Amino acid sequence: MNLVFQAIMMYITFFYTDIFGLRVADVTLMFLLSRFVDAFADPLMGTIAERSNPPKGKYKSWVVFGAVPFGLMAVLTYTTPDLSYGMKIVWAYVTYNLLNILYSVIINPYISLASVMTADPTQRTKLQSIRMMCAQSGGVIVALALPLVSGWLSRFLSLQSSYMTTTVFLAVIMVATLFWASTQVVERIKVTSHEDPPGFKDVIYQLTHNKYVVMMFLLFFGVYGFNTVQSSSGVYYMTYYAQRPDMVAWFSMMNVLPSVIGVPIVPWLVKRIRKKGTVLLGLAIGAAGALLLGLLPPSSIVLMLAFRGVSSFGYGILMGVLWAIITDPVEYGDLHTGRRLTAIVMTLIGLGLKFSMLLGGVIPTLILDVVDYAPGVAQQTQQSLNGIHLMSSWLPAGILIVTLIIFGLSYDLSEEKVAEIQHKIAVRDGLVEPVNDEERALVAEGEALRAARNHDHAPQRGAEPAPLSTIDPPDERETTEDSQK
């Protein structure tokens, strides 16, 4: 997925302004309006995934369904047809938005897969760490391939055709990989949301009653906003501020390569400082790298690469832990609503990723517009250079600092609380014998919910169970093997 997604994150703004030939203000408006499309398309896709039950797999089937259309749309997005300016804008709007919609078709069910492959939090963390290590590796390939291969092809083709041809290569590899990967995934945990199909009211209910969905949305918004700002501004930073367009590919590579190292150490970090501590560490390291970059003069190329690498390492830690912690709100929502709507919860959280493109697309282009950036002009004004410097260093640092403060003060869903929630769900669903009055009340609640579903009624929305701290855990716990069964 990142063979295409990172191509959009890193280079699409530069492509639209300097190669496709769109005015900065028009690109800003397009990115802004596209996020409203995502606000409807993503929850809709999450609802569709929950209501469907394809024979080849509830979630993994969507990877197969969406692979070819997504690859084709990536190529069309990086295609520059010979049209009038107005029709170019139409082309950009249509292809860019369809690309984002098709991305949602695949990614929203895909990110739900780990939750149905295993219920073991440790295994989920390892799965997500390996997944994100490979994802960031895809980013390394894009960082080098798109500018270098396109530059080499431009000796034989136009620069516009070179970008399109390079995207064709990446898209073909992506489609082939997704087809193969879908054969390797086993969905072990049965999800029955299609038997009592959720509707839009369930989306709203999760959004208004599952506080951890909102917290995780803000976390994803901040982390991916930081990355999209850094990724989209890097090409401007090296081309105009540092006056080293020959270093664009390597600077972009340093935006992702150290993250490949950061991701695999996440399970080790989680064991020692827990998930929340790991998130805070990643946020602090990422912010520190961006702050240090802001102190450098234009001639410090080596330190630019080094400090961008520091931010990337912190981002890698975040990529490893974010996708492990994302399943915890699913458990909380299951306990407090009586429904396990994995794809809907993941979609609402994943909207933070989509809306982060507001930061990565709208704010940098807005800054460029304010400072009178002139596309393609080698010697920019000092005002323009100051704007490019701001959006490449101080802005991403500020985003992570604000995110760190919000998450550090508000998120309290610890590993112990998640384990307690999972135990209560098992009691409610009849998988574990109740041992006290509180747990017997959970059993009665579960029976009422099942009876309501059997009669095609909406799930009962009773009062929430007592706070976790008031429930005495059973004296004897099921073994890990039995719990998994």
TrEMBL record:
Keywords: Membrane, Transmembrane, Transmembrane helix
This protein's record includes keyword Transmembrane helix: yes
Region (Disordered): 446-485
CDD domains on file: MFS_MelB_like
InterPro entries: MFS_2, MFS_trans_sf, Na/Gal_symport
Bias type Basic and acidic residues, positions: 446-459, 474-485
Transmembrane segments: 62-78, 90-111, 132-150, 162-181, 212-229, 249-270, 277-296, 302-326, 347-368, 388-409
Top-rank lineage group of the source organism: Bacteria
SUPFAM superfamilies: MFS general substrate transporter (SSF103473)
NCBIfam families in the record: gph (TIGR00792)
Protein name listed in UniProt: GPH family glycoside/pentoside/hexuronide:cation symporter
